[in-house]
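FAQ: What does the model actually see?

It sees only this:
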Amino acid sequence: MAFDPVNPSLRERLLTAIGTSLHSTFEPLQGFHGGRNEGIWFVKGGGETLVVKLVKFDPSTPSQLVEEQMFRKLFQELGPSITEDPKVAFPVKVFRLLGPNNVREHDLIVMKKAPGKSLSYVIGAECLRDLAGRAAKPISCTSSGKLASAWRIFTGGMVAGSAMMPESKTYCGMRKQSM
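And it is asked to produce this:
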């Protein structure tokens, strides 16, 4: 059975667990969801917008690469204030979803929606601009030293899907930028 947050048998329990109004609405994110994401929804109601992300759990993935574990490590490194930073979409709740025989199948990650466009959107738009032959603007991968540090901790030294260079350089899209 597919996960469907608007299914009446799940909707009320999910909204209660998330801690938002029972009058909230779910709007699915259209387009690309990312590698292991099997769905992303915006939950609107109660004065704020939350992002609910369904992530496939693969037991063969090393634990340091499991998204839930990376968020846990980052939370331990930076402290609870990271969940209140309006510039960062950081989980406020994570649920492990179990299937038959209580086997973990998915994680449901709930975070406040940060303002602006997603990094995947910005990089995708940049790639399309490059393909069209127009000069592309530099991509800003970090807004502060704290965020850059947090990103390195979160990804274990990986930034925007590419390896962190020893000389503290990173590849963001197709450009090499100083951190």
